[in-house]
Amino acid sequence: MRWAREIRLGVQLSVTGGRDAWIRLALVASGIGVAVAVLLVAASWPTMAEARQERHDARSYELDRQTPESTDQTLLIAYADTSYHGESVYGRLLEPEAPGAPAPPGVTDLPGPGEMVVSPELKRLLDSPEGRLLRERLDYSIVGTIGDEGLVDPGELAYYAGAAPDLLSSEETGRSERIDGFGTSRFDFPRGGETLVLALTGAVVALLPLGVFVAAALRFGADRRDRRLAVLRLLGADRWTAARTACGETLIGALVGTAAGFALFFPLRGLVPSVQVGGVSGFAADIVPHPLLAVAIPIGAVALAVGVTLVSTARAAADPLAAARRASWPRRRLWWRAALLTGGTALLLSSIGADPGRFGRVPETAVVGGVLLVLLGAGLVTPWLFQVAVSRARRGGVPWLLAVRRLQADGAAESRAVVGLVVIVTGAVALQTLFAGIQMRYADEEPVPGERVYRTDVPELPPAGAAEVAERLSAVPQVRDARAVVEYWHIEGPNDPVSLRVGSCSALRDHARIGECSDGDVFAVEGTSTRVEEGQRLRIPDADGAATWELPEVKRSVAPRDPSGLGEDPVPGSVLATPGAVAGADLPRSGVSAVFGLDPLTPRAVEEARNAVAELSPMGTTVIGQTSDSERERELDRIGALVTAGVGASLLVVGLGLVISAVERLRGTKRELAVLAASGVDRRTLALSVLAQATIPLAVGLAVSLAVGVPLGAALLRIAEVPVAFDIGGIAAITAASAAVVLSVTVLSLPALAKAIRPENLRAE
């Protein structure tokens, strides 16, 4: 077939065209190979996330199904999660009811009382000096490690501990569950608000530059290729023959690069378990590209190679004489580049204030499409603005004039090289703006030293346990104003159920405006149609049935008050009682809730407070602020770290492309540089002109990045319903780092300049 012959001719030109052809093939293949390898790692995220979820589900257990009867195959289990210096620690207390009790995934033998099995990462932490306070809290002997199948990732901190005899079997605990096996069905709660916007934007910003880089890599050595196509056209080949020949020349590089990318992926895959980003890592066995994405990446690389080749060779095919004599590049069209920016802006604006629908989700398609179009538009507008800026540059020193004249004659390579950087910097500036707004939202919720925003819950203590908890917390040197109450819920009243809190007068003042108080007083919380009155009998359920308490005189009705902003207002109908009022009631054990502050506020003080709670009960918990917000912040931190790592990887790839482009550009102009050197232009002037050639497109690109990235970040904040805020220092740091990358790459290419100005380069064939 004619097409096959023409494509074969292009392949032959690529592999038998001498040293220059081999160099171009190596440049194209290496650029595509690196990009494909990174894309394959990114394509493995769905399978890695699925594997993480499957392991999480395998060790979970149903809480909403009917509790099984005690048999020789049942197990009592209780939550014992904790935190250590901001890291979550997954923990469970276990008490088998018979030798046949099920074991969690990854655990061979259930630990006995006072023993625990731990994850490898937790064992490393406990054995290190950094884990001393956590070792005091988890005062169990380590008898084994949890296998990979029982961990969501290699870096997870997790343990299973054997509970003290009868700690979980007592019906009074209320914190344990009886199960006959592990494994639960999944229910995915969709992300919403700022979390989803951040994840979507980060994915686009991290991956889009790789596509831009591949497109740029396909243009390495394009000048020589265009002249070869011009010769074919002048020899009588039509435009489509020349285009198919060029496609064949490029396809071999794309195929070799794709194969190299798959070969490079496997060594990268083995490094993943040793890398932890934002507290997230993965097992090497989970790093498997999604089948559809694994097929789409090579097909996309080949399709992109054909598309870029057809577009980039259109000029040489249409006007071979201009390509042969290296005529000045024509004026670029603006309308279709501006249309991308306009379309992306319209999509983003349509998402602001849109109906979030169920679960408060943002319109993902509009956000992804809008960010994609805006970033592409910013990158594609840059060459047009660069051409305008260069055409108007006139005055300056000799290095400046040499650089400007070179860019006016043919600055296409320089503008192409900076497009990928513009996409990354624009996205990074938008992400920095998004982060700044989100951080400002949570900045107001940061605890202030001494402010009582810490809450702890200790299960199953007697009514006098509130004083014990407050006393134990107060023994920690930096704890301030620790006050606790015993809480009873679902008390059977004469009409509707009520709740009861028992604590000292100072502790009750945290929950209501009780005014004057003395031991023996009882107060009723306002705002209910059900009144509690003296003489009413309240039944408080416990393990042995129910305790009965006859309500003494209610001193007054009081207004509720949230003690610490933790959302713990006493509900209408609550009863607040001092210890003297319930002294003879023989109330059952129940949970104790305490609120306290820390001053000075240090990480060590937080951990010492948690240790004090753990001494009272291994199932005690300590939180700061509202738990949901803390979880949201941790999720945002994880996503932010993953996005930063992805953007950093893309920046490294683009930096590699800039190095290759700079060296290839110097090789393409070595004859002109040699002529200048032979004419008396000193090496310093030539080096400065090379730096100026990199600085001019860089300045234009960074200006576009700032002009587009800041409004893009503001629009994303509006979509996420977060107050708009800008981090000038962070944006300046991103801009400076990007400029440093380009200038460093240019400096690294100066040794190639010394080789290019040698006299032997004056020869021409």
UniProtKB/TrEMBL annotation:
It is a multi-pass membrane protein. This is ABC3 transporter permease C-terminal domain-containing protein. Residues 203-317, 649-754 form the ABC3 transporter permease C-terminal domain. The keyword Lyase does not apply. Pfam families: FtsX. Its main location: membrane. One of its GO terms (cellular component) is plasma membrane. It is found in: Cell membrane. It comes from the Bacteria. Keywords: Cell membrane, Membrane, Transmembrane, Transmembrane helix. The chain crosses the membrane at residues 21-45, 196-218, 251-272, 292-313, 334-354, 366-386, 417-438, 639-664, 685-708, 728-753.
